[in-house]
Amino acid sequence: MDISETRAPQDGRAQIKMENKDIELRISSFPTVHGENMVIRILDQIAALKDLEDMGFSPETLKNYKVITKRPHGIILITGPTGSGKTTTLYASLNAINSPEKNIVTIEDPVEYRLNLIRQTQINPKANITFASAMRSILRQDPDVIMVGEIRDWETAETAIRAASTGHLVFSTLHTNDAPGAVTRLMDMGVEPYLTASSVVGVLAQRLVRTICPKCKESYRPEEEEIKDLAITRTKDLVFYRGKGCKNCWQTGYKGRIALYEFLVVTDPIRDLILQRASSRMIKDVAQKTQGMKTLWKDGIDKILKGITTIDEVNKTTIGDDLQMVIK
Predict the structure, then answer these.
(1) Helices (H), 103-260
(2) Mean per-residue pLDDT for 42-67?
(3) Does position 2 have pLDDT exceeding 90, yes or no?
(4) Is the Cα torsion angle 54, 110, 265, 283 positive or negative in sign?
(5) Bridge partners for 107 per DSSP
(6) b (16+ CB within 10 A) / e for 119-129
(7) Does the structure show a pLDDT above 50 at 322?
(8) Partners of 122 in the beta sheet?
(9) Which residues pair with 17 in a beta bridge?
């Protein structure tokens, strides 16, 4: 970064060593009327490379997701807002299927973590290396699995679909609110419904919530207003949890984060809806009825009842379902 430049946004990076660990810093500056605003993204190379089992999946969702990642071809999309852990899930997915026999190639912006045995490429518009142009070149590298950091436009989407239809497994991300929304987003980009229906095999939506500090965790009886907001029916043994605040969590009551997941498997009924250009709401309703898809909201409720996170965290990151949940 140019330390003499204060009027233009800049991006930079640095690396520090802390407690015998390599920590990478991504630094962003942005000019404001009060001076430069700085944001530092901390990337722990070791902590980020997690196994799928440690990510927060429910047993059923994890089982279904692992089956999809072993498909020989198709597109698997990870959706969510910026900072929702999509890259970490992508890396965990690649590590789960990584082997010396597989040629796995990635296109990222930027390359956040280094993975063994995987060929990682960073986009560079000045050298004409964009997501779309890199995808076209990668197809001549005889890859088995391709990871595209993000599908941003029609050209990248079209190239990714062509790769999936010619026998490659493709992982990528989109910015949508839920899993069914990814399907309609592709069509909004100009991808034909028949291409979306034939290439997309699964969509995983996710959000990050803070987890309750284990050192100061306590149980309590929720108020009626809390139950009403969550659409949960009160029972005698209904107990929630929260953190009181201690030195371990800097008096916040939270320590660490975990993901909420919503996984849509593109089955024949879902393909039919895609071909009909159905709304994301209709796709979600059919997915819940035919494959028991658990929404982000319901996954959050499960984690509240298990004492993993709190009502406030789930409310901040998800939107409640229309149907009332009855906890027996």
Answers:
(1) 131-138, 154-165, 179-188, 193-199, 224-230
(2) 88
(3) yes
(4) positive
(5) 121, 148
(6) ebbebeeeeeb
(7) no
(8) 108
(9) 22
